Each structure stands twice: as C-alpha cells, then as structure tokens.
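Worked example 3. Consider a protein that binds tryptophanyl-5'AMP.
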Amino acid sequence: MTEGVQTSPAFTPRVFSGIQPSGGLTLGNYLGALKRFADTQNKGIESIYCMVDLHAITVWQDPAKLAHATRELCAGFIASGIDPEKSILFNQSQVPEHAQLAWIFNCVARMGWMKRMTQWKDKAGKNQENASLGLFAYPALMAADILLYHATHVPVGEDQKQHLELTRDIAIKFNNDFGVEFFPVTEPVIEGAATRVMSLRDGSKKMSKSDPSDMSRINLTDDADAIATKIRKAKTDPEALPSEVDGLEGRPEARNLVNIYAALSDQTVEQVLADVGGKQFSEFKPMLSELAVTKMTPISTEMARLMQHQDEIDAILRRGSERAREIASPILAKTYEIVGMVR
Ligand code: TYM
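Given these inputs, the predicted complex is written out as structure tokens:
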C-alpha cells in the first residue's frame, strides 16, 4: 500500500477514512470501504475510522434517524471485522477539533475549487441557491477530518477521488501560505476490484443508498432471500462470460457482477474469468448468489445482534472519541499557533 507514497518521511503511516451515517449501508460501502478497512487494520497500520455525522447533516436528517444510523454504522464497522481495540472508531461531532480545523480550511480553500466538485453539482442540482452552505463547504470539512490526524493514507471508493485531490490542494496551499511543512500530502488508496460497485439495475450508475429502487442495491441488512432475489433479477446481457478482461468491454452489467465476485472472493478479475469464462449468467448468478449470501449474512446477523446492545456501541464511540482527541488536539493547537492565534 505504501508504494508510490509522496508524503514526507516525517509522517508516520496512518490511515483515516469516514462514512456518512445517512441511513443504510450497501454492498458498495462494504466492498469499496469497510472490507478494505478490515484488511488494512489486519496489516497492523494505525487506523482511524469515523462516522461523519457533521457531513450527514449537510442535507436534512431526521434527528432520531441520524442517531440510529450512527449506531448502525458503528455496528456495521464492527461486524465487518474492524476491532475497536485495534482501530479507533468514533463519531465526528464528538471531536470538536474537526469543525475547528474545517473553519481554518474554509479560509484556505477557494470558492472556485469548491464549485468544481462534481458531488456539489450533483447534490445541489439545479437549485444551488437553496442548498446548504455546509454542502458547499463539505470538502473542506473532509480535508480537516484527514489532516487533523496527519493521516497519510485514505482508503476510499472511486467516487471520493476528487475530494481527496482537493485535500491535497488544501494541505499544499496551507503549507505554502504559512511557509511550513506541517500537513502531509495525503495519498488516496483506491485499489481492488470493487472501488466502484454499480447498480444491479443499471451498470452505468453507482450502487447507492439514495437510489429509489431497492432492487438496485444489496443492503448490509438484507437477508439471504433478499440477496438471492436481487442477484437473480440483476440486469445482464445475453452473452456468455468472457475468459479475458478485454471481453468485458462495453458490458457494464457483466463487468459489475464479475467485479463483485472477485472482491467478495478475494481474487483478481483475471482469476475469476479464468474460472467462469464461457459460462452463461444462468450458471454464474447462482454462484455469485451463494458467495454473496455466505459472505454477507454473517455481517447482517452480527449487526442485528450488536444493535441489541446500544450502550456498548455508545461506549465504543465515546472511548474512540477520547482516543481520537488525544491525537487531534495537539495538531489543532499547532495549527492555531502557525496561523497566529494567541492563547
Ligand atoms: P460515503 O458515506 O458516501 O461512502 C463511504 C465509503 O463507501 C464508498 N462507496 C463505494 N465504493 C464502491 N462502490 C460504491 N458504489 C460505493 N458507494 C460508496 C465511498 O467511496 C466511501 O469510501 N465524503 C465521504 C465521507 C468522508 C470521508 C472523510 C472519507 C468524510 N470525511 C475523510 C474519507 C476520508 C462520503 O460521503 O462517503
């Protein structure tokens, strides 16, 4: 993972990533983020994972649902194999340094940079005047999340790439403006077969919790029957599967199902195709369905079990926030000093 790292050797490798508790985790979140977090943790690198509740409220969230989604997300992290003893798990609002550093970065980032963000354009839609100011400033808060811990590596799905480039721009501009080498230039880690899991109904659209069709996604809370039905009904084409990756060209739905199979079975796409090349979807879909059920149902069962013990989840988040603050607070204090805030 450290190949090609451009960060200064002064920065110890540290992983940070975040997920919004905006209701419902999908197979995209699992393969693009959670599963990879667990793999990273098991390599022994210090890792910090955040439920970004301050980001979630950039669009309206019902308060009771936000609280439920935050706990459920924490349960999702743990059920996916993230050990709260090894990694730090916490919710963003409980470490006020995130909002404090974000304000500094609001003053470093330029309006033009923010306006170019595709997520801003997509989420604000045609009615930008009516979008929240928080939605516009969203990427500066994300940069604060990462840089508050001097994180060097950020594992994310493909859709976060532009935000991570902006994080690098903010770090570079801050360092230049103040003549310091204080913030690392963070490396995005976008690796593996499933950094962009697509909708099961339309291979050109990302699998997303906000898609109106529940058949378009596998939820982490789906049971075996729901998973099997969704895979059986997933859109495909009439051709047999190819034996080589080139043969997936122009076949987005086939590519997506093969990518999902590869990521779930910890294989490369090449390895999967060497095995299943020549098979019809009528044969491949049951294989995928069995694999997905085997891998995913223990996670949903464990999430449901953990949700019976909300006090324990809250205690894990509280303890995580304390540990996160121990790292964040000296970095914020140093930032204030660099900027010239008297204390
Ligand atoms: P969010 O909450 O939309 O998604 C969380 C993670 O899941 C990945 N992901 C996917 N990966 C593959 N295929 C998909 N269909 C798919 N859908 C989602 C996302 O890429 C992400 O890694 N802005 C971030 C949250 C954030 C953050 C951060 C991330 C806030 N601060 C600091 C990293 C570092 C977001 O909205 O992710």
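Take a moment to read the result before moving on. The chain is about 50% helix and 5% strand. Residues 16-20, 28-29, 32-33, 52, 55, 142, 145-146, 154, 156-157, 159-160, 163, 195-197, 206-207 surround tryptophanyl-5'AMP (CB under 6 Å).
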